[in-house]
Amino acid sequence: MRLLGGIHRHTEGLVDVIRSAEKGGVNQRGTIGGNPGNKCVSESIRTCEIRLQRVADRKIARRRLAYHIDVVFGIDVDALTAVFLSALIGVAIGLVSGYFGGLIDRVISRLIEVFLAFPGMLLAIAMAAMIGPGIDNVVIALTVMGWVGYARLVRVQVLALRQRDHVLAARALGRSDQAIMRKHLLPLVLAPVWVEASFGLAGAVIAEAGLSFLGLGIQPPNASWGGMIRDGVRYLLVAPHLVLAPGVALFLVVLAANMLGDGLRDHFDVTSRNMR
């Protein structure tokens, strides 16, 4: 539709130039119809048509390229950004909660429980409805939905690691809390975080497609698989490929993310690797 709209606008512009030329002709300065706004300086109307057609072809080619870039990379980049921000926030909160314990741990644990009380997709829909549709708002909604899993995972890992000998030795040597968390605890919790992030990517892609399908996600002219499926539903009986193509692409991306998560889990799980 964007491509057809661009062709239609360039065709209308060409018709206006020809009509103005028929009314006013080409003046001494070379502008058509005496209108300085028309910059086609040419010896004949044919030359103007050729130049306008070249400009139109270049614009259409750029729009085609941008469209394919949005379809192939744009959706995954949004999901990756949401997963990265969710992991960053969740890891930081989980480290603080698990390391310090006490009142801080109880407050953060209650906050995590509040977020877990709501279904993730319902929370994302509520956030998108409050802040409005758009790429940035989708990333915010997915981040609010996704940080809880990372925080809970890292908190449990840190609770088990903070009594290890190397952590106690670092504390006895006078290392600061920030240094202990950054150098002695964070490297040990990254392996499960990588696995969680790979599965979180699959969930983020599905959630983004669901929000776009409901009209709360990425809006035209930006491309989204959920938006493509929504637009193709009305033509499902006459052109089912409009729904099947983005659906299959969505399925393959989610499958690849889940397989990546399984592979990372098997790689980092020393017990299962030794059993093989």
Architecture overview:
By secondary structure, the chain is an all-alpha fold. The two termini are 54 Å apart. It is elongated, with a radius of gyration of 28 Å. Helices cover 80% and strands 0% of the residues. It has a single domain (42-275), classed as Orthogonal Bundle (MetI-like fold), CATH 1.10.3720.10. It contains ten helices and no strands. Helix 2 (45-100) packs across helix 3 (102-116). Residues 1-11, 21-43 and 61-71 have low confidence and may be disordered. The protein has helices at 2-24, 45-100, 102-116, 120-131, 135-161, 165-172, 177-213, 225-233, 241-268, 270-275. The relative contact order is 0.09.
Note the topology:
Layout: H1 2-24, H2 45-100, H3 102-116, H4 120-131, H5 135-161, H6 165-172, H7 177-213, H8 225-233, H9 241-268, H10 270-275
Helix pairs in contact: 1-2, 2-3, 2-5, 2-7, 3-5, 4-5, 5-7, 6-7, 7-8, 7-9, 8-9
Structural class: mainly alpha
Mean pLDDT: 76
Radius of gyration: 28 Å
* CATH homology-level superfamily: MetI-like
The gross shape turns out to be elongated
Offer a quick outline of the entry.
With 276 residues, the chain is mainly alpha-helical.
Structure characteristics:
mainly alpha, disordered N terminus, MetI-like fold, 10 helices, 276 residues
